[in-house]
Amino acid sequence: MHDSSKIARDCSAQPSSQTRRVSPTNPFIEFHNEEIEQSISDRFEQQVARYPDRIAIKTGSCTLTYDALNKAANQVAWAILAKQGKANEPVALLFEHHVPMITAILGALKAGKISVPLDPSFPTPRIALMLENSQAGLIVGNNHHSSLLDQLAGAERRALYVDELSSSFSDENPGLSIAPQTIASIMYTSGSTGQPKGVTQSHHNILQKVMSHTNDFHISLDDRLSLLYSCGFSASVRNIFGALLNGAALFPFDLHKEGLDPLAKWLMRENISMYFSVPTLFRRFVGTLDESERISSVRLIYLGSEGVTKEDVELFKKHFSAECILVNSLASNETGTARQYFIDKDTEIEGSTVPVGYEVRDKEVLLLDEEGKKVGFNQMGEIAVRSRFLSPGYWRKPDLTQTKFLADPNGGDERIYLTGDLGLMLPDGCLLHMGRKDFQVKVRGIKIEVGEIESILLALEQVKEVAVVASEGQGEEKRLIAYVVAAANCQPTVSVLRRALREKLPDYMIPSAFVLLEALPLTPTGKLDRRALPDPGRSRPELETPLVLPRTEVERKLARIWAEAFGLEEVGIHDDFFELGGDSLLATQLVSRVCTALEVELPQTCVFEEPTVAELATRITQAQG
Fold this sequence. Notes:
The protein has about 625 residues and is of the alpha/beta class. Helix content is about 30%, strand content about 20%. α7 (about 205-215) crosses α8. The chain is globular and about 65 Å long. Residues about 5-20 have low confidence and may be disordered.
């Protein structure tokens, strides 16, 4: 652990002098520093008063003005207050990726509560762990998830159905006095102990993030912001409040239901001006575009949570307008955005990796050695972020908070967060991200503690040892690989291992490949030698289903497409797509390739309904016949 006293003399800010500054030029209303000294609901209600008839949020089936959204949120707030009173306590929110979740988040904040958004697509045991840790006494949802809501509520907590709110609940603002430092939200992320951990944020912190993004990105009344993230991920905060606290419009798009193929047309049809996602999603989305296709409506693309490559920049230049700007960033749940790198069509990228860039307001980046002393330019060190706008800490984990968040060595109100990332500072103040210090990884921009996956596998009687790593796959996308040593007289199949993980973890934490080993490789000192772990290769995994080769021309074409998608030599016609390592994003890509190769139209959900080559071939043959 770093000693904060050793950091005191090394906390001077780095210079920032980009040779050619790139920034938005569109007019906007500046977000002033004094405006963060209030609650989120106060700021939102100010926008309602100014722009009551402007669109606040829109999906394919619902459009709400600021006034309508405010009234709906007020009714939720009064209903919460009727059940739970005015104490600042957690309230769990269980909704799909739609307008009701945004309404409930605002309602909880208006009631002075701590918002705990939960994704109903997660395994029920994982949601239950989050509920137990949050100690939420109330869970808010709708009839769409009534059985799950009742199951999770049980005898320990109350359930509130927003579909059944009585008209007796007022649609007037509750008018509670909420201090800026009040805790506003808990967002859960992967934990190394096998338990998800909750990162807290105050109204003050969230408003500072919105101020920073508003002023840096020139968020204006005319902007339309995409919302592709689940509201259970911290990145959604930037999109939701970046729009709703500036009089702009928020446009949720459900990738899991819609897939990637319609995304480009949706962006153009809805005239989306600001696109936010992780680089992997951006890469796959742009891969669906025709060679000459352009997205002219988007003026700013924000990518974060993963490394951006030179190839990503080339895709940006090829498919977006000359006025569009690409922003790469360094950010985390605990710190918010700490560095930014603005790119336009004239920006030249040297090397294969794009820098995470230059300093942002109110955030200072330090690079520290093992003793907590700052390293010089062109030297690698652990990235630490110093600010008074860091997360208050981890919910109900004071020891972990004390370990990761260091007090201001000068006795001020700033703190220092140790990110566990490695960085290198160039002489002009530009930061390069050099990977993780520990074995925490990011896949598709989501932070994952591989120890959580390992602990679940080790709990199985069939498993003796396990190591989970993130490896570069096709297209330079990271994927999780699990290396498993079986217990004596056991030979677990990949099907068994996947099934055990799916019962407790969301899809993005399920490894893409499993490799069975006689023993894990060790260093001379007896530690696991992760660098010596073998490549998973192209062999078909050991499944419960025996290998059956294609019998018809349609099955042969499908099997080839599947094998290419998974990087395997062959697949059987009865192999389950998800047992091979498939996920929802890969499913959308696969469906697109199938439709093109076989000249057939299929819904994005077909792989979920017919997850084997044989089943999908039957559906296609019937459609063609």
